[in-house]
What we know:
Layout: E1 7-8, E2 18-19, E3 23-26, H1 27-30, E4 33-34, E5 52-55, E6 64-65, E7 71-72, H2 74-79, E8 90-93, E9 104-107, E10 112-113, E11 117-120, H3 128-138, H4 157-161, E12 164-167, H5 170-215, E13 223-225, E14 233-235, E15 239-242, E16 247-251, E17 257-258, E18 266-269, H6 271-275, E19 284-285, E20 293-294, E21 299-302, E22 311-313, E23 317-319, E24 323-328, H7 334-338, H8 341-350, H9 362-366, E25 369-372, H10 375-418
Parallel strand pairs: 5-10, 6-9, 18-23
Antiparallel strand pairs: 1-2, 3-12, 4-11, 5-7, 8-9, 8-11, 13-14, 15-25, 16-24, 17-19, 18-19, 20-23, 21-22, 21-24
Helix pairs in contact: 3-5, 3-10, 5-10
Amino acid sequence: MRSYNKYKDSKIFWLPTIPDHWSIDRIKDVSITRSGTTPTSSNRFYYEGGEHNWIRTTDLNDGELYEVEYKVTDLALKECRLKFLPIDTILVAMYGGFGTIGKNSILKKESTINQSVCAILPTRYFNPTYILYFLKYFRNDWKLFADGTRKDPNINQDAVRNLFFINPPLPEQIAIANYLNTKTKAIDKKLGLLEKKIGYYRELRKSLINETVTKGLNKNVKLKDSRIHWIGQIPDHWEVRRFKSFAKTIKGKNLNTSDFYFENSLPLLSLEYLRNENVKFDTFAFSSDKSLRATKNDLIIVWDGAAVGEILKAKEGYISSTIAKIKFQKRVSSRFFYFLKDTLDYTLKQIPTGMGIPHLNPTVLNNFPCPIPPLEEQINIAKFLEKKVGLIEKIIANIQTQITTFKELRETLINDVVTGKIKVTQD
């Protein structure tokens, strides 16, 4: 990779040195910005049958934007004074916290926006695609200008207007934009193929589990109708039993907690800690009630919240008030039951109780029908699936590592080109 002959200090503490003939300018030096508004949602005539794009932060896709979820009508345009933005307008998310602010798109269809989006209008003084790439480079640094007094920090139009950006001569901006378009499209094509591979292996894992937990390992066994639509046929010697006939749940409780370890304490099991092997626990608890203690051999079911019905493998610790431990009879293996969880937690998530925070519907859980082989067969099925699914998950993890590498390569390439570390020629 070639570099430029001479560099200079950008004189902006968060920007690197830049090629000597490039300049540092503000967005307001080369363009004007604009935001929008939200037509009253109670007026259905503003939205029903609408044909005009009305863009929110959730529509921004970090690329070219053509169509969006919500459309507004001519009446909304007139009465709410919505203005169309021209093609090649750059859109920047201003609201939504650190996970959203700075998200961007380049507009490819005349559209309107709401108040959470800032538009940088195209002019003859800059190349819109180059500005889009610069904003991708800057995405993680918007926190420098965010309102730190809010729980979910936002930025405003002034922050966008006054943003310093690296400004090469226009012909070089065009060359950089074309170069990055070519390179990133090639990377994105590879990412798309890898995502398809992951989709294939996830479907393979799902079909393997479903086939094995309902048909067993012996392909020549005599089958019978289970009379349960999602199960279909099962081996003739298997039973269909309701959950309450072979297991019960032990609901967690509110426990006194500490941020530091104390004598006999164990981690309080949070969803984040249970889901992610890399997450470290940071809350300790203790209870004299031994039933509230979980081990790595137990299963946990989420009782309250958005993840209601989700089933997870437990870790050593105490169960909190939003989850429950599943206790099985001796004739049912938790290892076998774990592979039934995809169908079970999907069903439970469809029928929660409660008007505000969703709660598990215990009636649905207790009456849920499950195919149950003899215990020895359950153990053999679990061993088989643990081996096969483990292999598939290793393949998926390997592909995800490749995806991460390509994404990092894409980000590094953009960063190095828009800051001048890599020289892009105009030929």
